[in-house]
Amino acid sequence: MLTIDFGAGGVVVVAGRLDAAQSPSAQAFLDGVSGPVTLDCSKLEYISSAGLGVLLKTQKRLMASAGKLKLVGVSRHLRDIFQYSGFDQIFDIESAAE
Length: 98
Known about the structure:
The chain has 98 residues and is α/β, with parallel strands linked by helices. The protein has one domain: STAS domain (Transcription Regulator spoIIAA, 2-Layer Sandwich), CATH 3.30.750. Helix content is 35%, strand content 36%. The protein contains 3 helices and 5 strands, in the order E-E-H-E-H-E-H-E. It has a 5-stranded mixed sheet, with helices on one face. A hairpin with a 5-residue loop joins strand 1 and strand 2. Helix 1 runs parallel beside helix 2.
């Protein structure tokens, strides 16, 4: 199960599992955002390669219009996934407070 919506201050809050089953709804939501976007990942439990693809597609689209995607509240487990995939070089990632 995945929830994605706007939180306080226009931050996009994602919670649950961003996997192949949830990717279309996440992509549809993120296709509607613009400018610099902060994605709060503090409640994101899991991300699959399909979920990484959603974030990459969104980042590319935002960068084409001088925006970007910033990931905040990233757990150690998710940060490892971003590092192993090389996505830590693509996104501005802020780890969760530990």
